[in-house]
Specification:
With about 350 residues, this protein is an alpha+beta fold. The protein has 13 helices and 11 strands. Helix content is about 35%, strand content about 25%. Strands 1, 2, 3, 4, 5, 6, 7, 8, 9, 10 and 11 form an 11-stranded antiparallel beta sheet that branches. A hairpin with a 2-residue loop joins strand 3 (about 125-140) and strand 4.
Length: about 350
């Protein structure tokens, strides 16, 4: 039965760090010289005909092969999933866990199709890979034009015991994959997308705490929408900010007071009751704030505006310790798409950590 190295594709191999590729070449008795492309080509040609050699060569890298920079969406099932792997094989009429079934380029459409599968760390865990057409690439040779399919490969991780699946693709494609699985099984099972952010009140800050991480970049939109707020009101806000700037230049408290009084009249009774921070951000569609190498929380500017903003997501940096070495990983939380995007390449253990921390399965 296939293991993870047996279902690795060229795109998985080329995403490995160059030092790993060089080590693989050394272990295989191949030259470790050259570019990433040359190393991958050398490895691929050497191991592709031999499944045992694939496991031997890529076994040390299997943590990295099906992860990488990917988005993840989770789906849960109400029904018992025991035997689901066998049902999939029965419906496909192909044992994808012992044979790769790659469709011809001409037959690939926008509908995802399964072409391979591999067992995971236990009998209840396994991976299935899909391929689908996501566009067409035009080739021009002199006066001849031809097209070839542009495809995308998606990995789905199943855990029958915990009754969930994990789709490693951008959110729109993930939903299409989930629908494809339901159709394959003729709606014998029903699945529901996990609302990752819901248990945390759709707060990127609380998600960062769950991961023992730092929120270093946040996206938001104004909490209040002031319908009658016009250009004159916006100009008055700018006048106040400019008056404060001028005061620090000339220390003329009289000029500052006079400017504040004149702009105060332009707001009228309605907007005098609105916090000034809310007036500053009103009318903006998107607001982003970020810092480097530290947590955004506790920064005076962020804390000042936070009560007047509606979170739309953010970037979180969290540590992982393996073999005594601490590495840092970055994810982006999609509060509206209920997905997690790994901005830095993720291993299986890092994905597992995020899954265990955020998803109640």
């Amino acid at each position: 039965m296939y293991q993870v190295p047996n279902i690795a594709m060229w795109e998985d191999l080329i995403s490995l760090p160059k030092p790993q590729l060089k080590d693989i070449c050394i272990d295989l008795g191949l030259s470790e010289k050259g570019s990433v492309d040359e190393l991958c080509d050398r490895i691929w040609q050497h191991i592709s005909p031999n499944s045992e050699l694939q496991i031997q060569a890529l076994g040390k890298s299997k943590e990295y092969l099906l992860g990488g920079k990917t988005s993840i969406t989770w789906f849960t099932f109400d029904e018992e999933l025991t035997g689901l792997k066998n049902k999939i094989v029965e419906e496909l009429k192909e044992d994808i866990f012992n044979k790769m079934v790659v469709p011809s380029g001409e037959s690939i459409t926008a509908d995802p199709v399964i072409f391979s599968g591999a067992i995971g760390n236990s009998a209840d865990e396994y991976y299935i890979r899909f391929i689908q057409r996501i566009g067409n690439t035009r080739n021009v040779y002199v006066n001849q034009i031809s097209y070839r399919p542009r495809t995308a490969t998606t990995t789905v991780y199943f855990d029958e015991r915990k009754k969930f699946l994990e789709v490693r693709a951008e959110p729109k494609r993930a939903n299409k994959i989930a629908q494809s699985i339901a159709r394959l099984l003729k709606q014998q099972i029903s699945m529901e997308q996990v609302k990752v952010a819901a248990p945390y009140g759709y707060s990127a800050e609380r998600i960062a705490d769950a991961l023992n991480g730092e929120l270093f970049d946040a996206k938001a939109k104004p909490e209040l929408l002031l319908e009658n707020f016009n250009e004159e009101h916006a100009a008055a806000v700018v006048e106040i900010l400019r008056a404060i700037d001028n005061y620090f230049d000339n220390e003329d408290i009289g000029a500052l007071s006079s400017s504040l009084e004149s702009t105060k009249e332009k707001f009228g009774e309605e907007y005098l009751k609105v916090p000034f921070a809310a007036l500053i951000v009103n009318g903006l569609d998107k607001i982003g704030m970020g810092v480097s190498e530290r947590d955004l929380r506790g920064m005076p500017f962020y804390d000042y505006f936070k009560p007047h903003l509606q979170p739309q997501g953010g970037y979180i940096r969290f540590p992982q310790v393996k073999d005594g070495l601490t590495t840092y990983h970055t994810i982006r939380i999609g509060l509206t798409t209920n997905s997690v995007q790994f901005v830095t390449p993720a291993t299986e253990s890092v994905i597992g950590y995020v899954r265990n921390c955020l998803v109640s399965i």
